[in-house]
Amino acid sequence: EITNLVITGLNDTDDDFRKLADFVSGLSNRIPMHFSAYYPTYKMTNPPTRLDRLYRAYDIAAEKLDYVFLGNVNIPDKSDTVCPECGAVLISRRGYAVRIINLNDGRCTSCGRETGIVQ
Questions:
Q1: From CA 58, how far away is CA 97, in angstroms rounded?
Q2: Beta carbons within 8 Å of 76's beta carbon, 6+ residues apart
Q3: pLDDT tens figures, 65-78
Q4: Taking the alpha carbons of 71, 58, 113, 32 in that order, is the dihedral positive or negative?
Q5: How far is CA 95 from CA 65, 73, 74, 80, in A?
Q6: Which regions of 44-109 does DSSP assign to beta strands (E)?
Q7: What pTM, to 2 d.p., does this model score?
Q8: Whole-angstrom Cα distance, residue 106 to residue 55?
Q9: Are the beta carbons of 61 and 20 closer than 8 angstroms?
């Protein structure tokens, strides 16, 4: 599982997102990838991560990875784990609340796909 803090001006280009997705997918397309929003604090003053950059990171990574998430933001449907086969929500996340919904013994209960998720 990988978390990437997207920082404006440092690693927020399409090329940055593509290189990361290519590297991770070369290991396994099942590795979960989190793109987290940056907010300025203390001595680091780069502007906060723009939402359009997070969406772009998500879209680029989702072309190659089965499990992509956005963090440090409240965007419905971009924090949930969905089945890559049928799109059913497997794990729902709202803030710190996490619920397993359509997952049984590592399989999607909607289509039966083996997800690689360990419960």
A1: 22
A2: none
A3: 999 999 999 887 89
A4: negative
A5: 23, 9, 8, 11
A6: 68-71, 81-82, 89-94, 97-100, 103-104, 107-108
A7: 0.90
A8: 28
A9: yes
